[in-house]
Amino acid sequence: MHFEQDIKPLFREQDRDAMNFAFDLWSLDDVSGHADDILGRLQAGTMPCDGAWPDERIAVFRHWIDAGKPA
Ligand code: HEM
Asked: Would you say residue 19 lies in a domain?
């Protein structure tokens, strides 16, 4: 599991643009720093604003956190 390869591609350009006011979804440092908040929103189904992710997609993000958020 690696950020560039497995995690960054989960976030669309429109996700990045919409969330730039808070953090950069294409930045390892930003996503690492806000990982718990991001996971919480994904699990609650309140983000992305235009449709919740399927469980398998959320699981990829959660596994990356569990793996220690590797670069
Ligand atoms: C996978 C993609 C996305 C993730 C992980 C995500 C995550 C988050 C998180 C963690 C917050 C809370 C930020 C804070 O309070 O500091 C937030 C807020 C917000 N997001 Fe997103 N977001 C995503 C996509 C989008 C999209 C596509 C839109 C719609 C254009 C959007 C609109 C907003 C807005 C307006 C807020 C502020 C209002 C609120 O807290 O609900 N986000 N998002």
From this structure: yes
